[in-house]
Amino acid sequence: MKCPICGNEHTGKLSKSRYFCSDCFIEIFYSKSRELKILKILEDGTAFPVSMIEK
Ligand SMILES: [Zn+2]
Q: Where are the chain's structural domains?
């Protein structure tokens, strides 16, 4: 999985369909509707959804 934000190709795999970019501190996964979702992970461990950045 390539990070959709920074293009980092070395994202970590959290589970079968969840990935983590250590450069952006985001979690990337596909929803049930196969929509790409991004969660920003904050320093305190909370996560909030990030809208996919349009080209
Ligand atoms: Zn990234």
A: 12-50
What digits encode the pLDDT tens for the residues 4-38?
999 999 999 999 989 999 999 999 998 899 888 99
> Helices in 1-55 by DSSP H: which ranges?
none
How many angstroms does the Cα of residue 45 sit away from the middle of ligand 1?
17
52 CA distance to ligand 1 centroid (A)? Answer: 12
Ligand 1 mean position, distance from CA 32 (Å):
22
∠ CA 22-52-55, rounded to 5°: 105
Q: Can you list the positions of beta strands (E) in the chain?
A: 12-15, 18-21, 26-30, 36-41, 47-50
Distance CA 34, CA 47 (A): 20
